[in-house]
Amino acid sequence: QLKKLKNLKKRPTVSKDGFPLQIAANINNLRDVSSAISIGAEGIGLYRTEFLFMNATHLPTEEEQFRAYRYIVKSMHGKPVTFRTLDIGGDKTLPYMKLPHEHNPFLGYRGIRFCLDHLDIFETQLRALIRASRYGNVSIIFPLVSTIQEFKDAKEIYEEVRHSLVKKGYKIGHIHVGTMIETPAAAMLADKFAKIANPINIGTNDLIQFMMAADRGNSLVANLYLPFDPSVIRMIKYIVDCCHQNNVKACVCGEMAASSVAIPLLLGMGVNELSMSSMSILRSRSLIKNLNAKAMRRLVNKIVKSASSEIDVIRLVHSSIAK
Ligand code: PEP
Ligand code: MG
């Protein structure tokens, strides 16, 4: 048993019929990197950089950020590392920065909205990230994007920062600039995003709460927070299809990515990367090894056509795995 697990650590993730599905780690802190490596994560699929800001007593300087980002990129030895720019607001606050009180913080001043309004903070972070790119394989994604214009604005700022670093003589690696899709507005325009952003990381934690209009942290409406509602499955499939029509890497990095009901569906949709906490990686890898991707594709098509409730979806997944 132990030997089996050890073997799983070293191998890339493939389904029973040979379809690859990369499994990467979600990390919140630098100390999470070593567990990601020891478990054999195929990359860092989501580094939530806001934790670097939340755990400090002051805004981290460019040098402080650069050292942290470089550490992660170097530690991964060329495996892909996806940095999400500062996602503050909602339930996440900075102890040294007073932000206005809001009645609906999850629908409020957060993610890319905050960064586009605090260019000094945003540009400092981008400088540190771009400087760290020479040490490995870096992607940058933006959180809580709603409109194409927000992505274009963020990308333009990135280009300006990059250009000024090049002019100053910094060595810079090849960087992929993509986006999170975690609002229904962005999801409905996934075909447009897939023409200008790569990778696309589907943040299901937020996407589900916005689709179901059920606060992800409110137990009074937890009965409506339904990851397997057919509406959510259709939406995710639409985003993944748009990615593939444009040769864009499709990743899922919400909690759902590690669920044994979601994994067969995401494999069937042809998602390229699942990112999850390191703890879940081996279990997920061994599940995928026993799944037939082609059969899962048929299952997804059946669900999209026929399911009208979460119970339908879960039942169909269970009966198809049992076969
Ligand atoms: C998400 O919303 O699914 C996500 C990965 O981001 P976070 O959980 O940090 O909001
Ligand atoms: Mg989110």
TrEMBL record:
Mg(2+) binds at E182, D206. GO terms for biological process: phosphoenolpyruvate-dependent sugar phosphotransferase system. GO terms for cellular component: cytoplasm. Residues 4-292 form the PEP-utilising enzyme C-terminal domain. It catalyses: L-histidyl-[protein] + phosphoenolpyruvate = N(pros)-phospho-L-histidyl-[protein] + pyruvate. Its cofactor is Mg(2+). Its main location: cytoplasm. The active site is at C253 (proton donor). One of its GO terms (molecular function) is kinase activity. It comes from the Bacteria. Belongs to the PEP-utilizing enzyme family. General (non sugar-specific) component of the phosphoenolpyruvate-dependent sugar phosphotransferase system (sugar PTS). This major carbohydrate active-transport system catalyzes the phosphorylation of incoming sugar substrates concomitantly with their translocation across the cell membrane. Enzyme I transfers the phosphoryl group from phosphoenolpyruvate (PEP) to the phosphoryl carrier protein (HPr). This is Phosphoenolpyruvate-protein phosphotransferase. The lineage of its organism: Bacteria, Bacillati, Bacillota, Bacilli, Lactobacillales. The gene is ptsP. The chain holds residues 257 to 579 of 584 of the full protein.
